[in-house]
Amino acid sequence: MTGGYGEQLLSKVVDTGDMGALKRYGIQREHFQTEAERQAFDFVVSYGSQNGQAPSYATYVRECPDVLYIPEVSDTFEWMSRKLKAAAARNDLVERLQSKEFDTQFEGVDDGVELAKYLESIAQEVIERNTVTQAVGKTLEDLKADFVSEYKLRKEGRSFKIWKTPFESLNEEIGGLYSGDIYGFFAESGRGKSYSIIVFVHHLLRQGARVLVKSFEMHTYRWLSRLFSVMTAEKGFLKDEKGEAVGVPNREILTGKLDEEYEEAFLSIVDEINEYYSGTLILQAKGETGAGKLRRSLDELDAELARDPDIDVVVIDPIYGFSDVYGRNSNRTTGGAAEQTARRFETLVGDHNVVGIYAVQADVDKKDKSDEDGAHAIRLPRRDKVKTSKALLEIATILFSFDSNNDGLAAIGIEKGRDGGEDFELELISMLDVGVLKEPEVSASQFELDF
């Protein structure tokens, strides 16, 4: 009987007092075949957690009368664990193949490649959950072959990608945005961090990236109105009083009151948006239903990335919008929700080899918010002002600070650079309402010398 392996294993834990065996071989509740075994497992784990040791034979038999205690089991923990997990894997696979989710996935789908990928993902999940791992890690002998293989893939551009930022000076400093890395954006509230991220997304889409955006604070229309301002600014759709290229004013798009002179032309550009962007935007925004519904859990993000492995970039704005962590704070500590979110997001970005981008608000003292005359001077927030948790600082490969004012100025800086670049600051021209955020053009005359 397959259930016997579970009874044997638990009996040996009780006899030997080796609670660590359950951890060493990754034994979980779902690996046991009967409810009685699962309840016995729960009891043994709970007892060990409370008392620092396994229960005695007498206690185990009294508390778990529906399982068979088998004395003096001589089989090894590793062998029993393999047998237990092998049976669990078979049941797990059968259950997945007979589920409604499986039937729904196959219903009306003609693409055999996509179906095969789905089957592969199921198989991989079952394998990972039910494999007994022996090695703690790889030795240099193992690693050197992996390293050479990865180097060759990177040389050919097949293992990872580098995406350029919108600013050439920033690209020269950091190289670009690398798959598998995380980039944080932080600024005071209302200073344009979300707008700056949209400028980055615009540039990524122009390069052909497939970008998943979770906008927890902005509705679809507002988010797109900003993107279209940025897009039309790049196209030089309008000119300001100085003759500078600008985009359609965001306020006009939001109110639905575009100037009659260019309304038709603007809507025509929007209609051809797919030709303008070689990449793909997948937007989930606040308040949406149906296909654009905003899925608010980290587990759902994990599933989405598994279902769409072609996604290159994931944007989370802001990072504290995940409902399965925030509002629950399972570890009951100050900043605990942010800590959990940061660590899980870091894992997902690495596992799925995507560029991760998140936004977080900067905590700034009231006395720092303006100059004495009430005007706002550009002042990039420092890393110690990252709101909610320092874990958000720790997981970032690069932490960008951002600030802008109403005088047409902005700046982006590097507050943390895992590979250098810290203290780098770049001044920008900022007219966010008309989609402009760019480096100032430097004319040759600025470098003329008088002799």
From TrEMBL:
Give the InterPro entries listed for this entry: P-loop_NTPase
Drop me one GO molecular function for this one.
Answer: helicase activity
* Keywords assigned: ATP-binding, Helicase, Hydrolase, Nucleotide-binding
Q: What is this protein called?
A: DNA helicase
Q: Which organism is it from?
A: Shouchella rhizosphaerae
